[in-house]
## 1
Amino acid sequence: MALPISPARLAVLVAVVLAPLIIVAATPLSSALGPTVLAVIATAGSVRRGAPAMWRMAASSALIALLAALAATTGDALPVVGTALVVLASLATSALPRLGLTSSGAMVVTIGALLVIKPVATPVDAAGPWAAALFVALVVGATTAWIAGVLSLALRGHRLPGPDLPTPTVPYSILLAILAGGFTLVSLLAFPDSNAWWTVLTVAIILQPTRDRLWSKLGARVLGTLIGGGVAAILALVLPTAVAPAILGFVALAANVVLTVRGAPYWQSATAVTISVVMLTFDHDQLLQGDLERILFTLLAAGVTALAVVLLGLLRSSRAATKSLE
C-alpha cells in the first residue's frame, strides 16, 4: 500500500530539491539553467519508477548535455551533426514505454535539441569547446544527482503509485526520431539560435506509445500551454521588477514537482511547466514575446504531430485492406 506524504514533508522536500536550481540561477552557472531545468524535470518526473530510474535519467541528461554542447561547436556541419544526435537520442528511447519513463526520456531528447538549436554561452568558453561542454554537463549532472539522491532518501519507505504500462500501439521511438529530428533540422537551417527547440519539446511530450494516450496528452498539452501561456502573458504585463519572473518561475517549478509526486492530471503539470519555462527563460522585457512564441511553436508542433499520427493510421489501414484482398 502506498504511504501518504504529509504536506509539510512534501513542502520541505520540494524546497530541498529546488535549492541547487536556485543556486544555478543566481550565479554565473545560470548560462546552463535551460538544460538544467529540463534535466530536473526528467529526473524528478521518473520518481514513480524508483531510485534507479532517477539515477539513469540524471546520468542520461548529463551525457546528452555534453554531446549536444560539443555538437554545437561543429560549425557548418551543425545541421547534420545536431539532427543526428537528436535522432539517435530519440531511437534510444525505444525501451522507455515499457518502463513507464516516456515523458522523462522526452525531456532528455529535448536537452539535446535545446543545446544544438540555441547554444549557451558559458564563463569558460575561452578555454575551448571541451571546457564549455564539460561546464554544461557538470552543472546538469551535479544538479540532477542532488535531486536523485534527495528524492531517493526522502521517499525511502514510501511506495508511490506506479504508472500504467499499456501495450504499445504506436512505433514510438521511430516516430519520435522522424518528428524531433525533422523539427531540429528545420530549426537549425531556418531558425538557428532561437526558441524553435520548443517544437521538439512539444513533439517529445505529446508522443505516447498508445494512440489513446497520445490524443489525451495532446489535448492536455495544448490546454495546459494555453492556460499557462495566458497566465504568463498577464504576469508579463504586471510584474514590476526583473526579479519577480524568476521567483514565480521557481514557484511554478515547485508546483510541477508536487503535481508529479501527487500524480495530478497532466494538463495541470503542463500549465506549471509553461509558466516556469517562460519566466525562467526570458528577460523581463522579453516575457510577452517569448510567451507568444512558446504558444505558437507548441500549436505548430502539436498540429504536425497529430497529422503524422493520422497519416500513419491511414497508411496502416490501407495496408491491412490490401492484405485482406490478397
## 2
Amino acid sequence: MPLVGPREVQEWKGQIVELNRDRGYIVVRSQERLLDYVFRLTPKTEITAQGPARRSLEPGQWVTVQYERERSREGPPAALRVQVIR
C-alpha cells in the first residue's frame, strides 16, 4: 500500500467569473495574478460566507477557495471549501 502523506491544501482568492452548476465547476479570477483558475464543485464542497455575504455562489462574488491538487487525477482540482467574502 502506498503511504499517504499530509494533505497539501492550497488557497486561491479572486472573483467568480463563471459558474456552471450543471457541469459542476467555477472559474475564479485572481486580481493579484491576473489569472483564471477552474475548480470542480462536488457534493463534498463546503460553501461558507464571511460576515453579511450570502452563502450561495453567484458570478461576481469574491471568494477564497481551498483546494487540494490531486496529482493522479486529470482536470481541475476539486474545491474543498469556498468562502464567499463579498
## 3
Amino acid sequence: MSKNYTTVRIDNETMKKLEEIAETMEFQLNFKISKSSALRHVVESEYKQIVENPRKLAQRLLNKEGSKGDD
C-alpha cells in the first residue's frame, strides 16, 4: 500500500519545537522517533481532541435527545 505525501513548510521556531517533541518522545519511549512521526502523533492527538471527541459528544447528545422523543 502506497501513501501519498506532501511537503509542509514550517518556521524555524516551530521546527525546533518539533525536534524537542521528537527528542522527548525518544527519551520516554527509549527508541528513535523521526520528526515526521512526532508531527503525525501531534496532529492525531490534536485531531482527536479538537474534532473527534466533540463530534462524538454531539452525536451522543443528539442520540439522547432523539430517544427522549420516543417516550
## 4
Amino acid sequence: MCEENRRRLKQIVHVLAVLYVMTLLSGFLQDTQFNFFNYILFAFLFLVGIVLLRVTFESRATGTLRGLLFSTGISSAVLFTFFLSYEWSRQNGHSDSEALIEVFLYGTTLFFWISVIGSLLLIRRMRGLNPDCVSA
C-alpha cells in the first residue's frame, strides 16, 4: 500500500473517531431545541463511513487491515441507522423499543471503537513497508 493511500485512510479514520466523539457530546442536547445537531453529526458520520468504504475498496489494503477498515465504515453506517430508529422510538413514546435499540447502539459503538483502534494500529504498523510504490 502506498504512503499516500495509508495517509488518506488514516485521516479518514481519525475524522470518524472525532465525529463519533462529537456525536457523543451532542447527545446532551437531546431534549433541547438543539437536537438537530445530533442528526447533522450522525449524517456526517454516515457519509464519512461511506467514503471510508469507497477509499478502502480503491486502496491496496489487504488482509486484516482491509477487514478492519470495512468494519469501521460499516459500523458507522449502522450507527446512523440505529440512531434514527432510536430517535423515532423515543419521539413516539415506545420505551421498550427505545431500550432495545439503545442496547444495539451501545454494542455497535463498542464494535466501532474496536475497529477504529485496530485500523489505526495496523495502518501505523504498515508505515514504510512499500516506500517505492507508484500510485495510480
